[in-house]
Amino acid sequence: MRIAVFCSSSPTIDSKYIDLAFDLGAEIAAAGAELVSGGGHISAMGAISQGARSKGGRTIGIIPQKLVDIEFADHDSDELIIVDSMRTRKAKIEDMADAFITLPGGLGTLEELFEIWVGRYLDFHNKPVVILDPYNLYEPLHSLVVHLENHNFVKPGMRELVHWSSSVEDAVAHAQKN
Protein backbone atom coordinates (compact mmCIF):
# COMPACT_ATOMS: atom_id res chain seq x y z
CA MET A 1 0.00 0.00 0.00
CA ARG A 2 1.21 3.47 -0.91
CA ILE A 3 -0.18 6.63 0.68
CA ALA A 4 0.41 10.00 -0.98
CA VAL A 5 0.52 13.09 1.18
CA PHE A 6 -0.19 16.60 -0.08
CA CYS A 7 1.30 19.26 2.19
CA SER A 8 3.15 22.54 2.46
CA SER A 9 6.69 23.26 1.37
CA SER A 10 6.61 26.77 2.86
CA PRO A 11 9.49 27.43 5.25
CA THR A 12 7.44 30.04 7.16
CA ILE A 13 4.62 27.89 8.58
CA ASP A 14 4.17 27.22 12.30
CA SER A 15 6.29 24.35 13.64
CA LYS A 16 3.15 22.49 14.79
CA TYR A 17 2.43 21.72 11.12
CA ILE A 18 5.97 20.41 10.64
CA ASP A 19 5.53 18.19 13.71
CA LEU A 20 2.16 16.98 12.38
CA ALA A 21 3.78 16.03 9.07
CA PHE A 22 6.58 14.14 10.83
CA ASP A 23 4.05 12.27 12.97
CA LEU A 24 1.97 11.38 9.93
CA GLY A 25 5.02 10.06 8.09
CA ALA A 26 5.95 7.95 11.11
CA GLU A 27 2.40 6.57 11.36
CA ILE A 28 2.30 5.72 7.65
CA ALA A 29 5.53 3.73 8.03
CA ALA A 30 4.36 2.10 11.29
CA ALA A 31 1.23 0.95 9.45
CA GLY A 32 3.43 -0.77 6.86
CA ALA A 33 2.61 1.62 4.01
CA GLU A 34 5.01 3.40 1.68
CA LEU A 35 4.97 7.19 1.43
CA VAL A 36 4.55 8.99 -1.87
CA SER A 37 5.32 12.71 -1.68
CA GLY A 38 6.21 15.71 -3.78
CA GLY A 39 9.89 14.94 -3.31
CA GLY A 40 10.93 18.11 -1.49
CA HIS A 41 13.17 18.23 1.57
CA ILE A 42 11.94 21.39 3.34
CA SER A 43 9.00 22.24 5.60
CA ALA A 44 6.16 19.75 6.00
CA MET A 45 7.13 17.99 2.78
CA GLY A 46 10.55 17.17 4.16
CA ALA A 47 9.20 16.32 7.61
CA ILE A 48 6.73 13.77 6.27
CA SER A 49 9.56 11.83 4.64
CA GLN A 50 11.81 12.15 7.67
CA GLY A 51 8.99 10.81 9.84
CA ALA A 52 8.47 7.82 7.57
CA ARG A 53 12.18 7.04 7.46
CA SER A 54 12.43 7.36 11.27
CA LYS A 55 10.25 4.24 11.46
CA GLY A 56 12.03 2.40 8.65
CA GLY A 57 9.45 3.36 6.03
CA ARG A 58 10.07 3.53 2.31
CA THR A 59 9.73 6.97 0.70
CA ILE A 60 9.07 7.81 -2.93
CA GLY A 61 9.48 11.42 -4.00
CA ILE A 62 8.20 12.79 -7.29
CA ILE A 63 9.59 16.17 -8.25
CA PRO A 64 9.94 18.33 -11.36
CA GLN A 65 13.47 18.95 -12.65
CA LYS A 66 12.99 22.70 -12.15
CA LEU A 67 12.69 22.15 -8.38
CA VAL A 68 15.67 19.77 -8.35
CA ASP A 69 17.68 22.53 -10.03
CA ILE A 70 17.02 24.92 -7.12
CA GLU A 71 18.15 22.28 -4.60
CA PHE A 72 14.68 21.50 -3.33
CA ALA A 73 14.86 17.69 -3.80
CA ASP A 74 14.84 15.12 -0.99
CA HIS A 75 17.88 13.12 -2.08
CA ASP A 76 17.41 10.81 0.92
CA SER A 77 14.26 9.34 -0.69
CA ASP A 78 14.43 5.64 -1.38
CA GLU A 79 13.22 6.47 -4.87
CA LEU A 80 13.34 9.97 -6.35
CA ILE A 81 11.44 10.28 -9.62
CA ILE A 82 12.28 13.39 -11.59
CA VAL A 83 9.61 14.58 -14.02
CA ASP A 84 9.31 17.48 -16.45
CA SER A 85 6.38 19.42 -14.97
CA MET A 86 3.98 19.89 -12.09
CA ARG A 87 1.21 18.30 -14.19
CA THR A 88 3.32 15.21 -14.76
CA ARG A 89 4.17 15.13 -11.06
CA LYS A 90 0.51 15.14 -10.03
CA ALA A 91 -0.38 12.44 -12.55
CA LYS A 92 2.49 10.23 -11.38
CA ILE A 93 1.52 10.69 -7.71
CA GLU A 94 -2.08 9.77 -8.55
CA ASP A 95 -0.96 6.67 -10.47
CA MET A 96 1.45 5.45 -7.79
CA ALA A 97 -0.71 6.04 -4.71
CA ASP A 98 -3.47 3.85 -3.30
CA ALA A 99 -4.79 6.64 -1.04
CA PHE A 100 -4.33 10.36 -0.44
CA ILE A 101 -4.00 12.39 2.75
CA THR A 102 -3.98 16.18 2.66
CA LEU A 103 -2.35 18.16 5.45
CA PRO A 104 -2.80 21.88 6.06
CA GLY A 105 -1.25 23.78 3.19
CA GLY A 106 -1.61 26.59 0.72
CA LEU A 107 -2.81 26.94 -2.85
CA GLY A 108 -0.64 24.14 -4.26
CA THR A 109 -1.88 21.74 -1.61
CA LEU A 110 -5.48 22.75 -2.25
CA GLU A 111 -5.02 22.31 -6.00
CA GLU A 112 -3.78 18.75 -5.46
CA LEU A 113 -6.65 18.00 -3.07
CA PHE A 114 -9.31 19.35 -5.42
CA GLU A 115 -7.94 17.47 -8.42
CA ILE A 116 -7.94 14.15 -6.53
CA TRP A 117 -11.37 14.86 -4.99
CA VAL A 118 -12.96 15.69 -8.37
CA GLY A 119 -11.26 12.66 -9.92
CA ARG A 120 -12.84 10.46 -7.27
CA TYR A 121 -16.25 12.03 -7.88
CA LEU A 122 -15.95 11.48 -11.64
CA ASP A 123 -14.86 7.84 -11.10
CA PHE A 124 -11.37 8.29 -12.50
CA HIS A 125 -10.25 6.51 -9.33
CA ASN A 126 -11.83 4.95 -6.26
CA LYS A 127 -9.03 5.65 -3.79
CA PRO A 128 -9.58 7.03 -0.28
CA VAL A 129 -9.20 10.81 0.09
CA VAL A 130 -8.54 12.14 3.59
CA ILE A 131 -8.06 15.64 4.98
CA LEU A 132 -6.05 15.62 8.21
CA ASP A 133 -6.78 18.87 10.01
CA PRO A 134 -6.36 18.70 13.80
CA TYR A 135 -6.01 22.49 14.06
CA ASN A 136 -9.16 23.36 12.07
CA LEU A 137 -7.22 25.35 9.48
CA TYR A 138 -9.58 24.02 6.81
CA GLU A 139 -12.80 24.76 8.74
CA PRO A 140 -13.62 27.70 6.43
CA LEU A 141 -13.07 25.38 3.46
CA HIS A 142 -15.41 22.80 4.94
CA SER A 143 -18.03 25.48 5.54
CA LEU A 144 -17.56 26.78 1.99
CA VAL A 145 -18.10 23.31 0.52
CA VAL A 146 -21.30 22.92 2.56
CA HIS A 147 -22.39 26.41 1.42
CA LEU A 148 -21.68 25.53 -2.21
CA GLU A 149 -23.63 22.30 -1.81
CA ASN A 150 -26.57 24.24 -0.36
CA HIS A 151 -26.55 26.38 -3.51
CA ASN A 152 -26.27 23.33 -5.82
CA PHE A 153 -22.70 24.03 -6.97
CA VAL A 154 -21.44 20.91 -5.19
CA LYS A 155 -23.52 17.84 -5.91
CA PRO A 156 -25.00 15.79 -3.08
CA GLY A 157 -22.63 13.04 -2.03
CA MET A 158 -19.51 14.78 -3.30
CA ARG A 159 -18.62 16.17 0.12
CA GLU A 160 -18.85 12.69 1.64
CA LEU A 161 -16.18 11.34 -0.72
CA VAL A 162 -13.58 13.00 1.53
CA HIS A 163 -12.97 11.83 5.08
CA TRP A 164 -12.23 14.76 7.40
CA SER A 165 -9.98 13.68 10.25
CA SER A 166 -8.48 15.33 13.29
CA SER A 167 -6.02 12.57 14.28
CA VAL A 168 -3.04 11.01 12.57
CA GLU A 169 -4.11 7.50 13.51
CA ASP A 170 -7.64 7.95 12.14
CA ALA A 171 -6.34 9.48 8.90
CA VAL A 172 -3.97 6.58 8.21
CA ALA A 173 -6.58 3.98 9.19
CA HIS A 174 -9.11 5.55 6.83
CA ALA A 175 -6.53 5.81 4.03
CA GLN A 176 -6.00 2.05 4.30
CA LYS A 177 -9.70 1.32 3.76
CA ASN A 178 -10.76 0.53 0.24
Describe the SSE topology.
Layout: E1 2-6, H1 15-30, E2 34-37, H2 43-54, E3 59-64, H3 65-69, E4 79-83, H4 86-96, E5 99-102, H5 107-121, E6 129-132, H6 139-150, E7 162-165, H7 168-175
Parallel strand pairs: 1-2, 1-5, 2-3, 3-4, 5-6, 6-7
Describe what this molecule looks like in 3D.
The structure is a single chain. This protein is α/β, with parallel strands linked by helices and 178 residues long. It has one domain: Rossmann fold. It is built from 7 helices and 7 strands, in the order βαβαβαβαβαβαβα. It has a 7-stranded parallel sheet, with helices on both faces. α1 (15-30) runs parallel beside α2. The model has no long low-confidence stretch (mean pLDDT 96).
- Radius of gyration, rounded? 15 Å
Widest sheet: strand ordering: 4-3-2-1-5-6-7
What is the string of SSEs from the N terminus onward?
EHEHEHEHEHEHEH
Strand % is: 15-25%
Q: Give the CATH level 1 class.
A: Alpha Beta
CATH topology: the name is Rossmann fold
Mean pLDDT: 96
**Spans of at least 5 consecutive residues with low confidence:** none
Tally of separate domains: 1
The CATH architecture assignment turns out to be: 3-Layer(aba) Sandwich
- Specify the biggest β-sheet: 7 strands, parallel
Q: How many helices?
A: 7
* Count of beta strands: 7
The end-to-end span amounts to 11 Å
How would you summarize this macromolecular structure in one to three sentences?
This protein is an alpha/beta fold. It contains 7 helices and 7 strands; from the N terminus they run E-H-E-H-E-H-E-H-E-H-E-H-E-H.
